[in-house]
Specification:
Blueprint lengths: L6 E3 L5 E3 L3 E2 L8 H11 L3 E3 L7 H11 L7 E6 L6 H15 L4 E6 L5 H4 L8 H17 L2 E7 L3 H10 L6 E5 L7 H9 L3 E5 L11 H10 L3 H11 L3 E3 L5 H6 L9 H9 L4
Parallel strand pairs: 3-4, 4-5, 5-6, 6-7, 7-8, 8-9, 9-10
Antiparallel strand pairs: 1-2
Helix pairs in contact: 1-2, 2-3, 3-5, 5-6, 8-9
The structure holds adenosine-2'-5'-diphosphate (A2P).
């Protein structure tokens, strides 16, 4: 078995490929070729968002790749700044139209707060507003336009707000997760409640690639730092979403069927990355 062909089981009964292809910061005109290359390399899971402004390009790339719709898993997200039922409904309709793939496999709330407030102390929590967004997502789920629902950048209280008040439980929380940034509290909460943790920026948006400790460890395993970092997230039972626009990186990032020894995992767990 290869990590590329394995799946996590979701609590709604569906399954999700264990590695996804990230498209954050991939321009719409670059996305078709990147996505087509990813599918050719064996990815069957593509992650996009309304906010990335590349859903049309992702859809075009998937159609160009010629992969059967049911053999690919596509995630998109309701923008963080939309915090009402009507705004969420409009965003979902636009995503469905832009992707033009018939349905969305997984729809996430992109963040619990609008981005300008995400990292501001004392910002409001938007609990009622996120529930309104969730209700619009549940409607799309009931119609069959969306097959699974989840969240992104949520902390434990944000998740509990949805699980205690919504009808459908989130099956995924997509968070920033990489060597040196593992968000232990929310990760442990999700994993103990069957919520799959998706790791965005598994390479620290590229910042980890020149880190001397990682360069030395990767050399011992005869892999690249990117491969070491992706493997690390898999061994932490998270679902990595490596992003690249270069064919050789896209392909190399699928070659992660080696095992990081426990002692090295402990070293990576303890690494602080500046
Ligand atoms: P590019 O998009 O120019 O191909 P993350 O997934 O953590 O967000 O990191 C994405 C960044 O890492 C991008 O700048 C991407 O470059 C770069 N990258 C992705 N895969 C590799 C790789 N195998 N080797 C080197 N750089 C990579």
């Amino acid at each position: 078995m290869s990590a590329l062909t394995e799946h996590f089981r979701l609590t709604d009964g569906r399954s999700i490929p264990k590695i996804g292809f990230g498209t954050w910061q991939t321009p719409d005109d670059v996305a078709p070729e990147a996505v087509r290359t990813a599918i050719e390399a064996g990815y069957t899971h593509i992650d996009t968002a309304r906010a990335y402004e590349n859903e049309a390009g992702v859809g075009t790339g998937l159609r160009a790749a010629g992969i059967a719709r049911e053999h690919v898993f596509v995630t998109t997200k309701v923008p963080a700044q939309f915090k009402s039922y009507d705004e969420a409904k409009a965003a979902i309709d636009t995503s469905l139209k832009e992707l033009d793939l018939g349905y969305i496999d997984l729809l996430l709330i992109h963040a619990p707060k609008p981005w300008p407030q995400m990292f501001t102390d004392g910002a409001p929590r938007y609990f009622d507003e996120n529930l309104d967004v969730w209700l619009a997502m549940e409607k799309a789920y009931a119609r069959g336009d969306v097959r699974s629902l989840g969240v992104s950048n949520f902390d434990v209280a944000d998740i509990q707000n949805i699980t205690s008040r919504g009808d459908v439980a989130p099956v995924v929380n997509q968070i920033r997760f990489h060597v040196g940034h593992t968000q232990p509290a929310v990760t442990a909460y999700c994993q103990s409640h069957g919520i799959v943790v998706e790791a965005y920026s598994p390479l620290g948006t590229g910042k980890l690639l020149g880190q001397p400790d990682l360069v030395a460890m990767a050399a011992r395993y005869d892999v690249s730092v990117a491969q070491l970092c992706i493997r690390y997230t898999l061994q932490k039972d998270t679902l990595p979403l490596p992003k690249s626009t270069h064919a050789e990186f896209i392909r190399a990032n699928t070659q992660v069927d080696f095992l990081i020894a426990d002692a090295d995992m402990a070293t990576l767990d303890a690494l602080t990355v500046s």
